Amino acid sequence: MYLYDAPLAPALKALQEGQHSLSLYVERMCRRLEQINPVIQAFLPEEGRLARLRQDVSSLRDRFPDPHARPPLYGALVGVKDIIHVDGFVTRAGSQLPPELFAGPEATCVRQLREAGALIMGKTVTTEFAYFEPGPTRNPHNLDHTPGGSSSGSAAAVAAGLCTLALGTQTIGSVIRPAAYCGVVGFKPSLGRIATEGIIYFSRTVDHVGLFTQDVAGMALAAAVLCEGWQPVQPEALPVLGVPDGPYLAQAEPAALEAFEEQLLWLQVGGYEVRRVAALDDIQELNRLHRRLIFAEFAQEHAPFWEQYVDLYRPQTLEAIRTGLTVGPDELAAAWAHCLELRQELANLMAQAGIDLWACPAATGPAPAGLHATGDPNMNLPWTHAGMPAVTVPAGRTETGLPLGLQLVAPFGDDERLLAWAGPIAQRLAIMDG
């Protein structure tokens, strides 16, 4: 009941070619949202949503009456994480703080989506300031389980078919992890490929804007609009996959590792070569270093007002600020330098081992039970720290029906080949779902 097929690419094709009425399509999607969202709570409430969208549809049709001249995202219904500014919406960032503290012009990425023909379905729920304090969103696969975070509403909305595309952000694992938990495609591009102007920052150094869709083909269409300098590619050969063996991989739960080995076997039977590479031996120190970096920058963002509104912050958010205040300028400078050092180290390992993509679990396991927490992001942390592009694709299910994801990571700047390779890998792994 709470899951619904809504892949982006075929929806766009039908709308662009006039096979589907844009008005009827939007009306149908709004009715579904009205029925499902009170349970899933992926979107923030909005009075007059349908009336607003009717006006937006009329304006869009007036702009592009010729089906042959319609832009690439014509009719895409987009959910926008509520730390990203959208004209006409208040940005609250999942917080009780006065929203005027964070008001600003519409985000560049939202403007780009509008110019490409997308329609804003609404704001999606985020954890407080895109950290760990969860909102009310539930996982459409099992309402008693978290959808992940911090882009909780965006992942759940796409999984439930309440929109065809959603924007999220990732500072540790806030796109890849919830995408895996909710059984959808999540893409975190190379650092800086999608503009971050117009978001409420957690860490200006490592914040990434990322995307959610149900299909890799749709993800590639959206990435082509949002990623600077996008140049589609068609790789001739299958990628060689590298498994980062060692302490990093050992962070995953035993059952998740067992499922990961099964995923690799399916790929090997399908002709993919897998090579084991010792990597990330210092993962515990890296986990600590990354958090110290982002907490320091988070504290800087909130320095002008956090003491005045201290009683309005939730406990984990407040703890992050206070930890960040203990990071000195020398430590922070060393952490900045380490981001580039790790990026180069991983690139060297890939070149030496002759691998094209890293393959690893997208999370330490399936979505945990309960809504009090959003799960462990450590399987995503190194790739975010290094600013490397990552995508998760659905990769089977647990015995209880919870989805699992396979995370694929490419060298910095190689986003186009990453998504080109992810499509066939996703098709191969879809066999695991029967």
Structure in words:
There is one protein chain. By secondary structure, the protein is of the alpha/beta class. It folds into three domains: about 220 residues, Amidase signature (AS) enzymes (Alpha-Beta Complex); about 140 residues, no CATH class; about 45 residues, no CATH class. Helices cover about 40% and strands about 15% of the residues. It contains 13 helices and ten strands. It has a ten-stranded mixed sheet, sandwiched between helices. Strand 1, helix 4 and strand 2 form a beta-alpha-beta unit. Helix 5 runs parallel beside helix 6. The longest helix has 25 residues. It is globular. The protein starts with 7 loop residues before the first helix and ends with a helix. About 50% of the residues are buried. The model has no long low-confidence stretch (mean pLDDT about 95).
In short:
The chain is of the alpha/beta class and 434 residues long. It contains 13 helices and 10 strands.
